[in-house]
């Protein structure tokens, strides 16, 4: 059974920008950033959340385009979020910890600490690097916000055990 790839691979159009070889796709978001607003009901963040559990079992993933690189980054960020919280974390504690995690200093392709430098090209110049850092910050904030909605859909006392079961899984044996 092959891994699931991004459906946004086919939608390479004028709304899609690239920095290095990573796509800058439109987002439905309430956070400020360089992303264009998404006009459809389904965006890359919805896709990352939907495909996380299915793809987290795979150790190998064939990258078919720039949208797949953003999908990989999102899946690895969800893994990092799940490792940050535990089964006793309440809804309000999760909001605090995941908001802090999404705003923490993080590395981008081309940085020494970035774990996927072999698969991602670095930004071409400082302006591209700034654009990518701002986009990924916006992406991380929105992803952690929507993930909290999924984790605490049933109860605000504890996260879903069906999501927390994937906390120890390492997609592609990597972590951010």
TrEMBL record:
<keyword id="KW-0963">Cytoplasm</keyword>
<protein>
    <recommendedName>
        <fullName>Actin-related protein 2/3 complex subunit 3</fullName>
    </recommendedName>
</protein>
<dbReference type="GO" id="GO:0034314">
    <property type="term" value="P:Arp2/3 complex-mediated actin nucleation"/>
</dbReference>
<keyword id="KW-0206">Cytoskeleton</keyword>
<dbReference type="GO" id="GO:0003779">
    <property type="term" value="F:actin binding"/>
</dbReference>
<dbReference type="Pfam" id="PF04062">
    <property type="entry name" value="P21-Arc"/>
</dbReference>
<dbReference type="GO" id="GO:0030833">
    <property type="term" value="P:regulation of actin filament polymerization"/>
</dbReference>
<dbReference type="InterPro" id="IPR036753">
    <property type="entry name" value="ARPC3_sf"/>
</dbReference>
<dbReference type="InterPro" id="IPR007204">
    <property type="entry name" value="ARPC3"/>
</dbReference>
<keyword id="KW-0009">Actin-binding</keyword>
<comment type="subunit">
    <text>Component of the Arp2/3 complex.</text>
</comment>
<dbReference type="GO" id="GO:0005885">
    <property type="term" value="C:Arp2/3 protein complex"/>
</dbReference>
<comment type="function">
    <text>Functions as component of the Arp2/3 complex which is involved in regulation of actin polymerization and together with an activating nucleation-promoting factor (NPF) mediates the formation of branched actin networks.</text>
</comment>
<comment type="similarity">
    <text>Belongs to the ARPC3 family.</text>
</comment>
